[in-house]
Amino acid sequence: MIIHKLQTAIDLLSEGKLVAIPTETVYGLAANGFNGQAVAGIFQAKNRPQFNPLILHSNSMERFQEWEISIPKQALDLAAKFSPGPLTLVVPKSNLIPDIVTAGQNSVAIRVPNHPLTLELLSKLAFPLAAPSANKSGTISPTKAQDVQAQFGEEIGAILDGGPCHIGLESTIISFTGNTPKLLRLGGLSLEEIEDSLGMKLDQTKLINNENPEAPGMLSRHYAPQTPLYIDDAIAHLPEAEFSEMAFIGFKEPHGQIPTINQILLSDGGSYAEAAQNLFTALRKADNMQLKVIIAQLLPEENLGRAINDRLRRAAIKQN
Ligand code: TXA
Ligand code: MG
To answer: Computed from CA positions of residues 90, 278, 3, 40, in that sequence, does the dihedral angle turn out positive or negative?
Structure first.
């Protein structure tokens, strides 16, 4: 059920129910982060493996500190600059947080999302919200209330409609549990901006397989449409597909051979931010064309192009 009233969301969440919430990145599937049973409902609804920990959301870093989470200075400085925003900090866990949230790890991921309705919601709750992206595990992330409705229907308490997500890519995740900050996931805040602010390069050795720290590779296909998706340079190796049977997702330039009607450009003006915002909707649209394959073109490896390429590579069929 799509709702617009904050109070309904507050009531449902306080009763331990699941509510999908808007954020600037993607819609989240939220539950009371201090209620282990409510959080268990998220794993069940998403069909998410229990070893994959969740992000806690609240309306300010101070509130996380009130909940006995100690945030290192370097992380606080970064948050002062980019939070609320598409940034998640992984920091040492506090005992108030149930193990199911962190999948038994001694660190916790925290984030202050930049969405007015959700900030107001969070400020009225006495607990943080645990919230992964509001999609079934492995599928395309939702950037509109209707995307969530299409996957979960009446399975969850409600979907709070906050309009389309402005950024369209999940948050960038940085871990502050070791000696130097580590990039765990590329996302809506560019690596360049973070490194500039920190005045140092981020350690990227933990970047690959961050979806699945325990068993690398198992979840390597993610954000996946039903239609097999290939990266542009695989066209030459495709078995028996005609151009007319291909959907195309490109950055700003159309493909020379695939029919125009099958093509989606992420930003014909070449804006990374616009491309990011359109990415998941483009994947859904291409999938709905029900053609034989989707061909996706990678963007330049800079700015938000990196995170977009990360999502496209994970959505792609692996070729050996
Ligand atoms: O933008 C976002 O971050 C969205 C919105 C809803 O806030 N949320 C989101 O959650 O993308 P999810 O669950 O789809 O992705 C969270 C990622 C997972 O890859 C998970 O493994 C990682 O964060 N993560 C969570 N807690 C962690 C921890 N303690 N240590 C390392 N990675 C962690
Ligand atoms: Mg997700």
So the answer is: negative
Give ranges for CATH 3.40.50.11030 in the chain.
229-315
Residue 226 and residue 289: Cα distance in Å, rounded? 11
- Distance from C-alpha of 279 to C-alpha of 269, rounded to nearest angstrom: 15
Instruction: Pick from 88, 147, 304 the residue to mutate for probing ligand 1's pocket: most ligand atoms within 8 Å of its CB.
Output: 88
Q: 109: CA distance to ligand 1 center in Å? A: 7
Domain spanning 2-198: which CATH class is it, in words?
alpha beta
**CATH 3.90.870.10, the chain: domain bounds:** 2-198
To test the pocket of ligand 1, the residue of 93, 99, 173, 175 to mutate (highest count of ligand atoms within 8 Å of its CB) is: 173
In this predicted model, what pLDDT tens digit does every residue of 63-106 receive, in sequence order? Answer: 999 999 999 999 999 999 999 999 999 999 999 999 999 999 99
User: Which of these, 111, 294, 100, lies nearest to 188 by C-alpha position?
Assistant: 111
Lining ligand 1 with CB less than 6 A are: 23, 25-26, 28, 52-55, 88, 90, 102, 105, 107-109, 111, 113, 131-133, 170-171, 173, 184-185, 210-211
Region 229-315: CATH code:
3.40.50.11030
